[in-house]
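Trying the structure run again after the queue cleared.
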Amino acid sequence: MLFSRRNFLRAFGVSVAAGAVSQAPLATALPFPLESTRTRKPGGPIRLNSNENAYGPSPKVLATMRDALSMVNRYPYKEYDRLLDQIAALHKVTRNQILLGCGSSEILRVCAAAFLGPGKKLVQASPTFELLGEHAEAQGAEVVGVRLNPEFAHDLPQMLAHSDESTGLVYICNPNNPTGSVTSRKNIEAFLKKLPEQTRVIIDEAYYHYADDTVRAASFLDRPMKDDRIIVCRTFSKFFGLAGLRVGYGIATPEVIAKLRPFITSGSVNEIAALAAVSALRDNESVLDFARRNDDDRQEFFNQAQGRMLKPISSQTNFFMMNVHQPADAVINHFEKHGVLIGRHFPPLDTYIRVSLAKPEEMIEFWRVWDQLPKTGKMDM
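Done. Tokens:
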């Protein structure tokens, strides 16, 4: 794992002294200061429903945010430039290949506005992150959802079968939300070669940083493919713990970015968000720490599930989806009544629930509530 995390930093585009990395303990990371106040208000529910980083931003990023408060009377144009330069250096692209947005959600909205409309079609997995589909429908486009294959990867042959000259966009969330599963880069590349020439493909890498080395090495940003139809999305909402600030970006060719730019909201990334994002990209120690914590939390969840004869879908993210062999809505309601929020119902996986990882004490409460779940007779494996 140590070698793995050092490779992660190289892929991430940052450098850490080798001695400092080699001496860092893997299983004894101390909590961030003040983190106990970040996830839950006193008396409020435990939030395992939105795939957030429950530990919040790092102390360095929090300090940057506090300092930035004195500048909120200024427009963030200078900070835009700094963030663009940081992202460009990270991914070895030019600034005119980057589009900043109010979270990667805004990038998805802009893509729908630019490339969809009446007579156009969006092809995506089912289930997957629904937001692009909602924007597509608002534009008057047809939305075609293709069920995931038995391995919970994108069924690319079936997605190709539904793609034709009217297909303006194909959406591939990889790792996929809500399943946490991965579709291989090799299969995506073969799929791209067979798509209609005018069809653009959004590859959403929102959970890229949580994945293992093999998956990260297959990124379409860290190992670009020469195909001007590809738009890759990243976000600071998940791994970096900045969901409340709303900052993300898309990377594509300058020509594609130029087509997207007229639909973006000017100034949609605020001063504090831009400064926090720059600080997050520079905070090497926290990159390692977030990844290490998630590895430990993910393994513990899997162990607890296995001990209860549950079989979660193999996850490359900070959440799990698993078959509970009874209606998902009933299980969701049970948890809500006991002060724990878990993910919503994701048809057609009607007996599956999605659970975001959180702090150890919150996951202990999740399993305590799980053990109180009334059995229906459908739990037998």
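Residues 1-6, 13-39, 377-381 have pLDDT under 50 and may be disordered. Worth checking whether this holds up in the mutant runs.
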